[in-house]
Every structure is written in C-alpha cells, then in structure tokens.
Amino acid sequence: MSKLRIQRPIKVYLETYGCTANRFDSEVVLTILSENGFEIVEKPEDSDIILINTCIVKGATQRKMEKRLKELKRYNKPIMVLGCFAQYMPEKLKEYSLVGPYAYDRIVEAIQKTLDGHRVVFLDRSIDLGTKLDSHTVLLDPAIGIVQVSEGCVGSCSYCAVKLARGKLGIVEKEKLVEHALFLIEKKKVKELYLSSQDTGLCGFGLYNIADVIKEILNKTDKEFRIRIGMINPFWFYKIKDSLIELFDDHRLYRFLHLPVQSGSDKVLRDMRRPYTTALFKDSVAYLREFDRYFNIATDIIVGFPTETLEDLEKTRDLLLETKPDIVFLSRFEARPKTEATKYKQIPGFETKRRSRIIARVAEEIALERNKMFLDKEQEIFVIRPKKGKNVYYKVVYLDKDYKPGSIIKKRIKSCDQNKLFV
User: What is the C-alpha to C-alpha distance for residues 268 and 255, in angstroms, rounded to an integer?
Assistant: First the structure.
C-alpha cells in the first residue's frame, strides 16, 4: 500500500451489509470515527478510505461481497474490510486491511496505519458488548434504534458460519441494556426499537431473559414507540414463553416473533444439530396463535441440506401449511467452508433450486392468505414515515397521504399483497 499524507480531517466512506447486528456495529464504528474528528462522506469517490462491513452467512452473500470489493477498487482508494467476512475468512482477503467485529475499538488506529501504507489485521476480541453500547450514538436511520442484547452463540449447528465469525456468547448486565434503550427512546427519539442478537433467547443466559429487559423498558418510559424482538430459536423461546407472552398486552410491543425452524424433518434437524424438534416449533406457534390468531410469525427454511430427502421436503411443506408463518426466509443450502456440513455429499444445485421453488410457492400463498385476514378491518397504525406505518403485528401499511411520524391513526385496510397492506 502506498502512503497517503492527509492534513485535513480524514474522509471515510462506509457500506454495510447483512443483519441488524451488522447495522449496529456500523453505527458503533461511525460513532467512534465521528468522535475522533473523522468526516463521514456519502460517496466512495469523496473519501480517503473505504470501509465495507461484510456478511458471509451464505455462499451467495460471500460472492456478493467479493464482487463489491472488486467494484470498489475502481475508486483507487485504500479499502478496509470489517465484520464477519474479515473474521471468518481472512485468508481470502490478503490485499485488504481487516478489522473483525470485536476489534472496533481499534478502528482509528487501523485507518491511520492503513493510510500510512500498512496492512493491518485486527481480529482479536478486544471490545465487549458493553463497550459497544457505550460507543453507540450515531444512527444509520434516525427512526430506528438498535440495542444489541447479546453477541455470539452457544450452538453447534453443523452448517452455520456465523458462530465462526461471531464467536462465543457475550452478554452484559440488564441495567446497561435498559439504560441504552431509554437513551435511544428519550434522547434520540427513535420510533422503533430493535432488540437484536444472533439469538435474543440467549439474552442474559440464565441471569435474566429478554422478557425482563422489555418489561423494564416499558415500565420506565411513557413515550410512544414500538419494540421489535429479534430472532429467537424455538428452544429458548419455549423456556421463557410464559414470562414473555404477558408483555404483548402492551401495544408498544409488536406482536411479532422470528422463530427459525429450518426444516420440517426431525431427522434433518438432528443432522443440522438444531436443539429442538418440529413438535416444539408447532407448540410455540400454537401458543402464540392461541394468545392472538393474528400473531405475526416469521421463520427460516433451508432446502437442500445434504441429508434432506424428498420425503423430508414434503414434511417441510406440510409444516408450513400447518403452522402458516406469515414470513418465510428461504435459503438454498450451500455448504460453508470450515463447517461440519462440508463433509456430507452435497445435493446438486439444480435440485436445491427446484426444491426451493416448491417451498417458495407455498410460502407466498400462505403470506397472502395471512394478509387477507386484515382486509376491510380497521387497524391502529403507528406512523414510521410520512406515508408508511405498521400495525401492532409489525405488518407494513402504506398510507393514503402524509402523516406525522410517531402519530397513531386508525384506518381500514382496503387491499394487500403478500408483503404489505394498503389503506
């Protein structure tokens, strides 16, 4: 790398990909840089250095990151790779400076050394979640406040690269989470609060749970806002379901949960090393829908896992038809390097694509069916943007005219598609 001598404030351009946790990390980075006199610019061509916060959860995502890195080279700027790709596969990124998701306290040093012509590799765990929360005041979207409630994982799924990138579980005291949530609500005046994690069911991990955090937040402020709970695995949800369900009586908590099941076959779940059965997932859905039949449930499905048979695929289809999740995040399996699943004989890509189309059609039909339940019904809508809001079920509602963000209006739903409602 050639040395760049810059006397004025250093201009930094940052792109972010991936999950809510990555968005939170980017906000932490931007906060640290802003507090240290860096100038954040909106175009790569205006920068002195380009930062890209990466995701590697799927093979297709990794290829997207690699393509984007090639595209960014045309600006002839130093490029620094942040996040999961840097942590998970540094051997693929030998021409770039690297900063992993637990080394953002060294981001200033990393940029300065990179601009001085050095390649830095900061992948050690030098910052914890509590410090990240303390370093989080810049928001990518002023309407949305993200509270990372835990980091890392305790699972051992045979196919997952996320644990290799995010590492072991890290938690903080409940009081710090509540304090930061209240800061975002009362000082930053966010409209939505996203409680995020690789698995929000691991929040507190025996010391407290996500329900304890939510209860304190709701009790300590009378501001009008909404809380969205991030992904929680059925195994952990079922352990805290009774303490969590009573909180949904508060209109500020969206009646929405993301419960990833991955497959309708218990055999495949065992091979995936998922810590639950399809019966537990069904019981979880039934529990929520008994509380409220409109309860919005999202799930994840992976098709084409190496040990999945056509009978297993049919079980996945049947599971969706029985439980009727509003949202299905569908993935075609592709073995990730360094995971146990690479040892299995893989199903050909054309076959996983065919199976994906089968499940996608079912998921789309269910999504439309669920949204049609709201037709001709008056809904209380919390306005997020001037012409866009959400009902209590976290359903996106497109409005007929501009309304003030943060206001609550009542409107009758006139039409819908599989993704949204219209007044």
Answer: 30
